[in-house]
Write a structure and sequence with these properties.
With about 450 residues, the chain is α/β, with parallel strands linked by helices. It is built from 14 helices and 18 strands. A hairpin with a 2-residue loop joins strand 14 and strand 15. The mean pLDDT is about 95.
């Protein structure tokens, strides 16, 4: 399900044009907007024609806790109107122009697009650049989805247990920079808060049954399988008790050495059930996953750009066994193994399913943020490796993509989802003033 957003809507006009037709069009637009998934509207009824009306409408919307402001140019209008609105409503802005109606006696009836041009020029020259332009009968839902990203980030309770993984300096963040850019307040917990979390024997036994139904566990000792079940129950209870919607985890080296297993298999199960869980303490990876889910993508997860093959122009998106188990290809054997951490790894092993995929990474360098975006198609492959993985051919040559990543110092994790979810992130980056790397 997409993230809920609240939109303020007003329609501007001038009586020297066919404002009666504009008012009728506005009524139809509101009716259509009310049908959008997970959208609440605060609508200014009627047309806004005079500067005082614009100022009054802006004051009304300012008290509605909206995520974005939709300004429709019903006809051409005074340049004062949008400027009066944004003085009071400091929110991402959609300038919406309507297609011209059939001429009536040789006269332009709406001249709406010119109104959009006027507004854009006034805003740009006043230093306001976070607007987006839409021309057509319906709203640009990619812009609405971009607002969903911002809403999800500031309204999701995110946590981290432990710290980033040992030596992964590039995954570190400055908490107050994350807050400044996205409104996120990150809560910190210690690893032993999960390890010591109390769960009932009945709950553990239910999880044990679940683990054995999902995975082939013949390579594991009975006590290791039980540990997976126990940890799955502990994570689930911990998330529920603390009302955490997304969690970054320092998954090594302490998990294996102290708790007895790594958390990969437990995370694979929980992610398949809709939990956002980022390995290796990757906060920005977690943020990227939340953003993808906000626009309606299902089951995001983190991977490494592990191998690149210049001959067949592909990349292996691999990780050590944490991908959501529901994304398995349905052909290979889903199994658990202990191939690392001295036999305490306990990771999932399977090939991921085929399909169209989108890659996103929100990544900081100093106090600056940028967004890595890429889109591609999964290439079918056999199960040849430990861990969870897919082979992908991207829309641009893999050599060029990898060069972009390393030349811009992007972190070695990114989030991937099935489907095409690229455009809303470009709009979100423009709203935030972030660089897009693609």
């Amino acid at each position: 399900m997409k993230q809920l957003v609240r939109l303020g809507v007003m329609c501007l006009a001038r009586k020297t044009f066919d404002y009666h037709a504009a008012e009728e069009l506005y009524t139809n637009i509101i009716s259509n907007l009310e049908k959008l998934e997970q959208v609440e509207l605060s609508v200014i009824p009627g047309l806004v024609i005079e500067p005082k009306e614009a100022a009054s409408a802006a004051l009304e919307l300012a008290g509605k806790d909206i995520d974005g402001l939709v300004v429709i140019s019903g006809t051409f209008h005074l340049g004062h109107l949008v400027l009066e609105a944004v003085k009071t409503v400091s929110k991402p802005l959609l300038l919406w122009g309507l297609p011209e109606l059939p001429y009536n006696g040789g006269k332009i009836r709406l001249n709406s697009v010119c109104g959009v041009n006027l507004n854009a020029s006034n805003l740009y020259k006043s230093g306001i650049r976070n607007y987006h332009v839409c021309i057509g009968d319906s709203i640009d839902e990619n812009w609405v989805d971009a607002l969903r990203i911002a809403s999800a980030l500031k309204n999701t309770h995110m946590g981290i247990i432990g710290f980033r993984a040992k030596g992964f300096f590039n995954l570190g963040v400055y908490d107050l920079n994350v807050y400044r850019e996205m409104g996120i307040l990150l809560d910190h917990y210690e690893l032993n808060e999960v390890w010591k979390f109390k769960v009932s024997e009945e709950t553990v036994q239910k999880k044990l049954k679940q683990v054995k139904e999902i995975f082939v566990v013949k390579e594991l000792r009975d006590e290791q399988v039980l540990k997976v079940a126990e940890l799955t129950a502990k994570f689930e209870g911990f998330l529920k008790k603390n009302e955490i919607s997304a969690l970054a985890i320092r998954c090594w080296p302490e998990f294996a050495s102290v708790f007895g297993i790594s958390p990969c298999a437990a995370m694979s199960i929980l992610q398949s059930e809709g939990h956002i869980m980022a390995c290796e303490g990757d906060i920005e990876g977690m943020i990227s996953m939340i953003a993808q889910r906000a626009v309606g993508a299902e089951t995001p997860y983190l991977f490494d750009f592990s191998q690149i093959n210049f001959e067949d122009d592909s990349a292996l998106l691999w990780h050590c066994g944490v991908a959501p188990c529901n994304l398995w290809d349905g052909k290979c054997e889903r199994s658990l193994s202990t191939y690392f951490a001295g036999g305490k790894g306990v990771t999932a092993d399977f090939v991921l399913k085929n399909g169209e995929v989108s890659v996103v990474r929100f990544d900081s360098a100093g106090t600056e943020y940028r967004v890595l975006l890429s889109h591609g198609e999964v290439i079918p492959m056999e199960k040849e490796l430990r861990g969870t993985y897919m082979k992908v051919r991207f829309d641009r040559p893999v050599r060029e993509l990898f060069d972009l990543i390393v030349e811009n110092g992007i972190a070695h994790h990114a989030s991937v989802v099935y489907g095409n979810y690229i455009t809303p992130f470009k709009i979100f980056a423009k709203i935030k003033g972030w660089e897009v790397i693609e």
